[in-house]
Automatic annotation (TrEMBL):
Protein name: Formate dehydrogenase subunit alpha
Species the sequence originates in: Paracoccus onubensis
Keywords of the record: 2Fe-2S, 4Fe-4S, Iron, Iron-sulfur, Metal-binding, Oxidoreductase, Repeat
This protein's record includes keyword Iron-sulfur: yes
Source superkingdom: Bacteria
GO annotation, cellular component aspect: membrane; oxidoreductase complex
GO biological process, one term: respiratory electron transport chain
């Protein structure tokens, strides 16, 4: 089947309309003789653009508020004196506007002369040639000559050079090349302030300012000693995108030239699911530009999606299949047929020797829905068992369980746009600015507009306090006490009569509510009763509960700090209870919103990656559900749930589980209790790793099947708001195949007889068998851009808001949320509690971002420790320390900081040299086996360097990655 081709001019008007869209009563006016009707509050500039009339502009852009500094967009309005700026002038009923006449042309040409007289005229060699708004506007106003004489040797650059004593022959001010991804050339700056405003209004970092006056004006990235690398700049690219000249320019464009074509696709990093235009010269990717009509990101991006795509071309990528008989042997490169036959024969042999259930699969939350669907189909239809699991269970399975029990669905309730209507935002166990930065920018914008924030987190994240952001309440709870805090909030709401009785009577099970009220009002749940347990002052907790219940639209956003606990499912149910108690469900600005970690965590859950559920969250034991797939696949499906990853590893150590196909996951680095994971993998007789790089899991693999990046495939991702976005092939797969094709070839090598020719056919099968996807087709996604499931006959264009008129379960169910302490306890030997998380510049296990320039910002995992705890242990900032728990130890550098409370330490898990999960335990959520990453009792002590385990591991990894030279 022929690939879907994105047209030269993609769907949706991609023009910059100058100023933001407004909503309001219709207003009619006349512009250059054309009658236009637009919403009240719309600028004259945007109204003209709506009529197809482009008013020249330099400082205006439709993702920022009007500024009115460039004076190029002047117009005349009948009945008004002067020539107002069209960007800052709102429309009025009956207004008559003239955008073109001799007077305006003369004035615009004069303004443009002033800009050009102070700008280097090196257009032919400039990196922005052909992609420069200053150049375009000079042509638009008809400027062909400049009457004004520039300072000797030309332009602002020499003005600064002479001022600073560099002499009359200096030709430029030094560029700021410090940032690895873009350059700042002040000689080309026209001081339009677009970069500064983008940093403030779009990103919300406030890293840039304009310093100086007149000819001395220039963009500054901070203090006099700061550059773009050392400043507060987060390298999101908003300033680069906003710049109308080559002042801020991608280094890739400077090196590779201005791109000539683009393909719209979806980012493969976090669960926000940003849409990008991949811009190319031929088949060479030049840059990734956030797509303004992307409904998840609305034209914004972060450092990872915008710049960290270089891993696709990294020298470490494995592009040829490899095999070996034993894991202590070097790898041998082979052709695809040989590798697939080797893998298929091994897996079939294991089943013949050890039984049908002796092998299984792990699906990927980085791969597409279609690829994930095929992997779980492989185990059910070809292996004939249900041994399928995914990293989505390792991070967010309590979301599915908890929301399923309370609301009847296993996903978040809102779209991202909903946050702009929130009055109170509660963030619990999530760090949006680091893990979901594009959505965090929208959240911060709403906070600056007046919304109040409650942060429930052991660590003082940026949403507690940063530039122009200050949380109303920070509840720094002890790790592991989420349930106690959430139930205490419910106690306050119930005992003070702050609940929404009308909502509860109409939408929820009233009898269950009565039982829940009896539970919640028990004095043992009072904030005062749990203060010693949680470490949260009772008065602060009470105030936070009152604010959430009475502050207007209340939205809850949570992350892995909720789910990765022994009571993760209980906490999710407690959060759902809070939303129902206060009526904060079923409309814009409210809801329960899990912030998914990886790009397709939601999709991998939707596609049936769990051992007990078929696609669409339907239990495998149900005969009518199995019948759907038995008819579609022509096989009999095992009614017994299969093994989760921990069970697979346990069974491997016991000798009953022998073979694993692992697509796009690195369980040795990402899963808890690394020693146990290694032992389980080492006990298996055939481990097939399907990935981009020889990751840590591949140290124990017998077959390596090279994978393809998101740039090299077609398919769909489903983001944290249930939004299904198309992933479009930007370039040919460097390994020769898309990942779904590799899975199909493996299945066929084992006798499956699959015949898919395009991912759209796989989606058609998903739609035919999964009710929530029943209306989803590639054609619909091309037409709409994206849709949110459920998408079916009842909602043919998708469902942005869930539970508007009622819950899928019928009535909402209040669940009892009894606090049960984790089995992981601190004591004299291990007195501190370790919790883990992510950092902005790195992603998950770092396999992708470590192979980009992002490592300049974060080249190693570090341990955050409070000054009091550090002083007690004789630890100074930057020292190597030993981090030890009951399960293992590692070493890393310490950062002494008050971002963590006393008794709590924090680290990330991005670098395999640290292997932070060697210290985490095998305790897990009572309902889903989601690992308890966030609560580990540890001790910290000074160290001289790597631990013995690290040294042994590094030696083993080096031996495991030997590749025999290709035969001559």
């Amino acid at each position: 089947m022929k690939d879907f081709i994105i047209p030269a001019f993609p769907p949706g008007d991609d023009r910059d309309m100058g100023t933001p869209a407004r909503s309001g009563a219709p207003v009619s006016l006349t512009i250059d003789g054309f009658e236009v009707t637009v919403p009240e509050g719309t600028s004259v500039m945007r109204a003209a653009a709506e009529a197809g009339i482009q008013v020249p502009k330099l400082c205006a852009s439709d993702n920022m508020e009007a500024f009115g500094s460039c004076r190029l967009c002047l117009v005349e309005i009948d009945g008004r004196r002067g020539t107002p700026a069209s960007c800052t002038t709102p429309v009025a009923e009956g207004m008559v506007v003239h955008t073109q006449n001799e007077k305006l042309r003369r004035m615009r040409k004069g303004v443009m002369e002033l800009y050009i007289s102070d700008h280097p005229l090196d257009c032919l060699t400039c990196a922005a040639n052909g992609d420069c708004e200053l150049q375009d506007m000079a042509g638009a106003v008809g400027l062909r000559d400049v009457r004004y004489k520039a300072p000797e040797n030309g332009g602002l650059a020499n003005h600064f050079a002479q001022r600073d004593g560099a002499g009359p022959n200096a030709n430029y001010i030094p560029k700021d090349e410090s940032n690895p991804y873009f350059t700042y050339d002040p000689s080309k700056c026209i001081v339009c302030s677009r970069c500064v405003r983008a940093c403030e209004e779009v990103q919300g970092t406030f890293a840039l300012t304009i310093e100086g006056r007149g000819f001395d004006s220039r963009v500054s990235a901070g203090a006099a000693t700061d550059d773009f690398l050392t400043s507060d700049c987060v390298s999101c690219g908003a300033c680069v995108q906003a710049c109308p000249t080559a002042t801020l320019q991608e280094k890739s464009v400077i090196e590779l030239g201005t791109p000539e074509r683009s393909v719209i696709t979806t980012c493969a990093y976090c669960g926000v699911g940003c849409s990008f235009k991949a811009e190319l010269n031929g088949d060479e990717l030049v840059r990734m530009v956030p797509y303004k009509h992307g409904k998840a990101n609305r034209g914004h991006s972060c450092i990872k999606g915008r710049f960290a795509y270089g891993y696709a071309q990294h020298k470490d990528r494995i592009l040829k299949p490899m095999i070996r008989d034993h894991i202590d042997e070097p790898w041998k490169e082979v052709e695809w047929d040989e590798a697939l036959a080797f893998a298929a024969n091994r897996m079939r042999g294991l089943q013949e020797k050890y039984g049908q259930k002796s092998i299984g699969v792990i699906t990927s939350s980085r791969c597409t829905n279609e690829e994930t669907y095929l992997v779980q189909k492989l185990t059910r239809a070809v292996f004939k068992n249900n041994n399928t699991d995914t990293c989505a269970r390792v991070c967010h399975s309590p979301t599915g369980y908890g929301l399923g029990k309370t609301y009847g669905t296993s996903a978040g309730t809102q779209d991202f746009d909903s946050v702009q209507y929130s009055d109170v935002i509660m963030i619990i166990g999530a760090n949006p600015t680091d893990a979901h930065p594009v959505f965090a920018s929208r959240m911060k914008k709403r906070v600056r507009a007046g919304a109040k924030v409650i942060v429930v987190d052991p660590r003082r994240i940026d949403m507690v306090r940063s530039t122009h952001i200050r949380a109303e309440h920070h509840l720094p709870l002890r790790p592991g006490t989420n349930v106690a805090v959430v139930t205490a909030m419910a106690h306050v709401i119930v005992t003070e009569g702050l609940y929404d009785e009308m909502f509860i009577r109409e939408r929820c099970d009233w009898d269950e509510f009565q039982h829940y009220v009896e539970f919640a009002r028990d004095p043992r749940h009072a904030p005062e009763a749990i203060e010693m347990l949680t470490g949260v002052p009772a008065a602060d907790l009470r105030a936070a509960a009152r604010l959430y219940a009475t502050g207007g639209n209340g939205a809850i956003y949570y992350g892995l700090g909720v789910t990765e606990h022994s009571q993760g499912s209980t906490t999710v149910m407690g959060i759902a209870n809070l939303a129902m108690l206060t009526g904060n469900i079923g409309r814009e600005g409210v809801g329960v919103n899990p912030l998914r970690g990886q790009n397709n965590v939601q999709g991998s859950c939707d596609m049936g990656s769990f051992p007990h559920e078929l696609p669409g969250y339907r239990h495998v034991k149900l005969p009518d559900v199995r019948a759907i797939y038995e008819q579609a696949w022509g096989v009999e499906i095992d009614p017994e749930p299969g093994l989760r990853i921990p069970n697979m590893l346990d069974a491997a150590v016991e000798g009953t589980f022998k073979g694993l196909y692992c697509q796009g996951e690195d369980i040795l680095q990402s899963d808890p209790d690394t020693h146990h994971v290694a032992a389980g993998l080492a006990a298996m007789e055939c481990v097939i790793v399907h990935d981009l790089f020889l990751n840590e899991t591949a140290n124990y693999a017998h077959v390596f099947l090279p994978g393809s990046t998101f740039l090299e495939k077609n398919g769909t991702f489903t983001n944290a708001e249930r939004r299904i976005n198309l992933v479009r092939k930007v370039m040919a797969p460097r390994n020769g195949y898309e990942d779904w094709e590799v899975t199909q070839m493996l299945a066929n090598a084992m006798g499956a007889g699959w015949h898919y020719t395009h991912p759209s056919q796989i989606m058609d099968e998903i739609a035919a068998t999964t009710p929530s996807f029943a209306g989803v087709t590639f054609e619909l996604l091309e037409e709409k851009g994206s849709v949110q499931w459920p998408c079916n006959e009842e909602a043919p264009e998708g469902t942005p808001l869930m539970h508007v008129d009622g819950f899928k379960a019928g009535k909402g169910h209040f669940m009892i949320t009894e606090y049960v302490a984790t089995d992981e306890r601190t004591g004299p030997r291990y007195p501190l509690l370790l919790t883990t998380g992510r950092i902005l510049s790195q992603y998950n296990v770092g396999a992708q971002t470590r192979r980009t320039h992002n490592s300049i910002w974060h080249d190693e995992d570090v341990l955050e420790i409070h000054p009091h705890d550090a002083e007690q242990r004789g630890v100074n900032d930057g020292d190597f320390v030993r981090l030890a728990s009951r399960t293992g130890e590692t070493t890393l550098r310490a950062v002494v900081t008050e971002r963590v409370a006393t008794g709590v330490v924090y680290t990330t898990f991005h670098h395999p040299t640290t292997q932070a999960n060697v210290v985490t335990t095998d305790f897990s959520d009572w309902a889903t086996n989601c690992p308890e990453f966030k609560v580990t009792a540890v001790q910290v002590s000074p160290s001289n360097g790597p631990s013995e385990w690290q040294e042994n591991y590094n030696r083993h990894a080096e031996l495991s990655r030997r590749i025999l030279p290709a035969a001559e």
